[in-house]
Amino acid sequence: MRQKTFTDANAATEGLLWDGMTLMAGGFGLCGIPETLIEAIRRSGVRDLTVISNNCGVDDFGLGILLAGGQIRKMISSYVGENKLFEQLYLAGKLELEFNPQGTLAERIRAGGAGIPAFFTKTGVGTIVADGKEVRSFKGQDYVMETALTADLSIVKAWKSDTEGNLVYRKTARNFNPMMATAGAVTIAEVEEITDPGMLDPDHIHTPGIYVDRIVQGMAYEKRIERVTTRPRPILEGVG
To answer: 20 to 30 A from 128, CA-CA: which of 6, 113, 161, 198?
Structure first.
């Protein structure tokens, strides 16, 4: 079996980055994002990227650092509300955006990984989402056709991996990562822990290693929270 583990993110991305490529990046908000790989892409200086991701990070973290560096030409996303620079670039006509309902985006990626070229959904019928797309009736209900999404490179974040590339995600980090791992021509997994083959319970593996081409172990994760919302602890009668 060929070696899948790489010493660092620079080595893991070597030979896989070029101007104008399409990149899928896992994560939801700032949860489960491949921080180390994003930083390596920033350092590479690659430009004119089309990025498929649920969102574009925040102004100074996640995919937001690629946006700040002028490396992203187009975003295919479902939510962009946490990034002020994104808004400014889009309104100024300097950033293309293909907006998707969130479930539609997820299914477009899943379809790409499954080899399904297109599918029909009721979501978006009668709205601007359906503009320019085929609408067909099934059993008296209208559905809009959506095409699958694939990428030249998928970067995903997992909790654990073995050296064969079998991946386990932790809690809500199991968001867009599993489907994106299947939809890239090449997939790099950034993980927190790498184990030997046979150390992962087969019933707990979320992404089989057949989908993963390269593995890199990250470290010193920030794991930021986009918006910290708290409330005063209630005062209970007879306590304290």
So the answer is: 113
